[in-house]
């Protein structure tokens, strides 16, 4: 009878996972599909120079988001994972994380804004357009930061359906706004404003969903703030480095290339963003469960590498499709980008390796395992320096090759450090 009971328990778990993954995958496919079509609409309707400005603004928006986070989300997740079943304590953790993010966001905005203006002016954007783009990213910036924290409670409780439904409706809202406005006003700042507007509505919904699992009326707590700041002190130097390495192709092309090259790299990157569905699924279904695992050395290492092997097989399949059908894929982004076959393959390889590296980092950091930035930063800086000497980084192909090399080095570092820390901490 015990064997039958164990079999039924395992069967129920497998069936639950199949249902959860199926529904979540379906909704996430819808989310990514809407987001993808919105992005393609922007590529096709904006002239190349406007799309270059759009790419620069989004790159700096991502930089601000990384600096404003600086490890706060990982620290908040780690603290929330300890009290996820206590509604009041979970609310206190979320309130503390939100409070820290608002303060970091203001500093981040003040630091990054001059760089955005400089790069836009460097690529011959008018002063008016430069300031309009700066203003347009502010709503998207602040609402995205709040949205990330508000998603933690439903993720920990695996309340996935309402979360994914909100994402679907938010992206649909964004698509409608973009479609209505960009046909009439084909300017980069209009496309960015559409994203921020939809995120405001999304945050209202996310707060209601989170309130089922956390008391959202709680105030920030000083002791929790100190615990989160421990993560920030360890992650922030790496986050600053990531601002450079994470968008190395755009940064290098921005300084050494022309406006058309920025548009081309941005368009290729938009195709690579389709792969974000896998990163989102992992972040929604896998990472929270991995964060909740008991401290068992063998189990942690086994599950970590099971996740990685699944990703590697997926990556091989995606790269094979891209290599065999580049012209068909490039057709999607329009006639201005049809001669980028090899660049497309290199871009997708880099994006796939980025997913593996990002997943490794996320799994580790949400367990409190953080690679010392004094190890990662010099390693990657040396890699970039050597790569720049061996590869012609003034071309798009050269920059994409350098991006692949950096991603490979990051993967190796995260793998080795995870194994080392788990073995040393859990003897």
Q: How many β-strands, per DSSP?
A: 0
State the domain count: 2
Question: Mind summarizing the main beta sheet?
Answer: none
Overall pLDDT confidence: 81
Task: Using the CA coordinates, give the radius of gyration.
Answer: 22 Å
* Global morphology: globular
Strand content: under 5%
Report how far apart the termini are. 36 Å
SSE ordering: HHHHHHHHHHHHHHHHH
- Quickly count the helices: 17
Percent helix range: over 70%
Indicate the structural class: mainly alpha
| Low-confidence blocks of residues | none
Task: Give the secondary structure arrangement, pairings included.
Blueprint: H1 2-45, H2 48-69, H3 72-82, H4 87-122, H5 127-150, H6 152-156, H7 160-182, H8 188-210, H9 222-245, H10 248-256, H11 259-272, H12 276-292, H13 297-324, H14 326-331, H15 341-365, H16 373-390, H17 396-425
Helix pairs in contact: 1-7, 1-12, 2-4, 2-5, 2-8, 2-9, 2-11, 3-4, 3-9, 4-5, 4-9, 5-8, 7-8, 9-16, 10-11, 10-17, 11-15, 12-15, 13-15, 15-17, 16-17
Brief write-up:
The chain has 427 residues and is mainly alpha-helical. Helix content is 84%, strand content 0%. The mean pLDDT is 81.
Key descriptive features of the protein:
mainly alpha, 17 helices, 84% helix, 427 residues
Structure in words:
The chain is mainly α. It has 2 domains: 222 residues, no CATH class; 182 residues, no CATH class. It has 17 helices and no strands. Helix 2 packs across helix 11, helix 3 packs antiparallel against helix 4 and helix 15 packs parallel to helix 17. The longest helix is centred in the first third of the chain and has 44 residues. The two termini are 36 Å apart. The model has no long low-confidence stretch (mean pLDDT 81).
């Amino acid at each position: 009878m015990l064997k039958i009971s164990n079999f039924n328990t395992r069967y129920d778990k497998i069936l639950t996972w199949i249902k959860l993954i199926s529904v979540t995958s379906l909704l996430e496919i819808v989310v990514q599909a809407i987001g993808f079509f919105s992005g393609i609409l922007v590529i096709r309707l904006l002239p190349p120079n406007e799309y270059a400005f759009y790419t620069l603004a989004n790159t700096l928006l991502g930089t601000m988001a990384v600096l404003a986070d600086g490890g706060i989300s990982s620290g908040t997740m780690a603290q929330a994972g300890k009290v996820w079943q206590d509604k009041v304590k979970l609310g206190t953790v979320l309130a503390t994380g939100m409070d820290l993010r608002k303060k970091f966001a203001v500093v981040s905005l003040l630091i990054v804004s001059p760089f955005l203006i400089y790069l836009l002016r460097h690529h011959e954007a008018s002063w008016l357009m430069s300031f309009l783009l700066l203003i347009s990213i502010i709503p998207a910036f602040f609402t995205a930061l709040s949205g990330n924290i508000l998603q933690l409670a439903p993720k920990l409780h695996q309340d996935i359906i309402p979360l994914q439904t909100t994402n679907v409706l938010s992206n649909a809202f964004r698509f409608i706004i973009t479609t209505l406005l960009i046909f009439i006003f084909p300017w980069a700042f209009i496309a960015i404003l559409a994203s921020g507007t939809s995120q405001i509505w999304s945050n209202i919904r996310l707060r209601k969903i989170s309130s089922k699992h956390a008391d959202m009326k709680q105030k920030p707590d000083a002791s929790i703030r100190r615990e989160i700041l421990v993560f920030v002190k360890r992650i922030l130097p790496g986050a600053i480095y990531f601002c450079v390495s994470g968008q190395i192709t755009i940064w290098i092309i921005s300084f050494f290339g022309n406006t058309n090259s920025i548009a081309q790299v941005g368009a290729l990157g938009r195709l690579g963003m389709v792969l974000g569905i896998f990163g989102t699924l992992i972040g929604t279904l896998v990472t929270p469960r991995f964060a909740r695992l008991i401290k068992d050395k063998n189990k942690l290492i086994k599950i970590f590498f099971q996740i990685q092997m699944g990703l590697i097989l997926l990556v091989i399949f995606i790269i094979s499709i891209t290599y065999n059908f580049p012209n068909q894929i490039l057709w999607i982004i329009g006639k201005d980008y049809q001669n980028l076959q090899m660049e497309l393959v290199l871009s997708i390889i880099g994006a796939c390796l980025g997913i593996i590296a990002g997943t490794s980092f996320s799994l580790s950091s949400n367990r409190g395992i953080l690679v010392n930035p004094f190890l990662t930063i010099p390693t990657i800086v040396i890699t970039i320096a050597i790569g720049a000497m061996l590869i012609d980084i003034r071309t798009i192909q050269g920059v994409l090759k350098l991006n692949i090399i950096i991603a490979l080095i990051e993967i190796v570092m995260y793998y080795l450090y995870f194994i080392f820390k788990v073995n040393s901490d859990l003897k």
